[in-house]
Amino acid sequence: METIGQGKPILFLPGFTASGSVWKETVANLSIDRKSYLFSYAGFNGNEPIEMPWYETIKNGFVDYITQNNLTDIIVVGHSMGGNLAVDIASELPNRVSKLVIVDALPFMKDVMVPDVPIEMLDYDTLYNQQTIAMPDADFANMASMMASMMATDSTNQETLKNWMIEADRKTWAYGYTDLLKLDLRPTLKNITCETLIIGASFPDVAIAKENYEKQYANLLEKKLIMASNSKHFVMMDEPEWFYKTLNNFIINGN
Question: What is the pTM of this model?
């Protein structure tokens, strides 16, 4: 974890495999004085892996950290998996979180990623996971390159995303992703009381993406949904100036 600045806390939670450094430009463009917390996760970015269940342990770690350090009036900004963590944190600690920003994250990603796979078939010990763990480095790098090309537009940013994937602990990659596919936070949304901004990516189809957001976040009452106009998954990389303006407007004015 890295902290920048002073003041009330704003937690920046990256996505799966991503480094907390993905938020540094966002922090540099904040229009308010806050103490920014940039996190990275166990098993990624040189951090030691942990035992499974991975996501639940990470989530509990955040709740414990906030409680033990008596953080209050918190703004939580989460991208992708970080958005799921943001939802969990705001649900479990509603009196400590004042605003929530969810960036291109769905509370039930399985519904979009693998809708035809029964949830009871999602397990750590699957053939797919074992093949992923045992995959030769060159093949994994090719897969990471293909995935990165779907997540950001600029080739330099794609290379950064690819390297984060390659550097990840392979078991954490396989088993952690299984945790995310099994995650269904839709019932949890009703527990969130703070103002929430949802920022969605436009790729590959903005109309379908918006429909998915509206359906999946139906249980979240105090929300505002804004769709990017020309962005893949990493909105803060693809449309940075628009993203900074949108984030600052919500934090300062609530719109």
Answer: 0.97
